[in-house]
Amino acid sequence: MIVDPPPPPPAHLSAPAREWWETTINRYELQPHHLKLLELCLQAWDRWEQAREQIERDGLTVPGREGGMRPHPCVGIERDARLAVARLVRELDLDAEPPVSERVGPPGLFSNRGRRNAGKGANS
């Protein structure tokens, strides 16, 4: 079941995330579960950006309770959100065609074909 017409971006997303939503739903035919994955991805993207901006303001370390310095709490938030974005983008698998691979093994993900096959012609 393809969602038609596509829904507007969730209002709680940042302007760049809403733009990414619009671009994605206009470029791909998404089913309802894809829309939820896309929303989760964009929420994680926004959280990543918020944590990154907080680290830029405060620095990578903050004073610890007993003196000294410790990692800023947003370092972990940034890392976790970045990993979530990477996983959700991979889960969405929005590449148009399957990868061409010469290796033996399970098929690769569509989204992993970029570097390995960059520059290869159709007859390679």
Summarize this entry quickly.
This protein has 124 residues and is mostly helical. It has helices spanning 15-27, 32-58, 73-92; strands at 61-63, 69-71.
Structure in words:
With 124 residues, the chain is mainly alpha-helical. The chain has a domain at 30-61 and 69-94. The protein has helices at 15-27, 32-58, 73-92, and strands at residues 61-63, 69-71. The chain has a two-stranded antiparallel sheet with strand order 1-2. A hairpin with a 5-residue loop joins strand 1 (61-63) and strand 2. The longest helix is centred in the middle third of the chain and has 27 residues, at 32-58. Mean pLDDT is 83; it is low at 112-124.
Number of E-type strands:
2
Helix content: 40-55%
Can you give the mean pLDDT?
83
Uncertain residue segments? 112-124
Give the structural class. Answer: mainly alpha
How many helical elements? 3
Shape: flat
Q: What's the helix-strand series?
A: HHEEH
First-to-last CA distance: 37 Å
Please outline the major beta sheet: 2 strands, antiparallel
Hey, roughly how much beta strand do the residues contain?
Answer: under 5%
Q: What Rg is obtained from the alpha carbons, in whole angstroms?
A: 19 Å
Which strands sit side by side, in order, in the main sheet? 1-2
Q: Quaternary state, please?
A: single chain
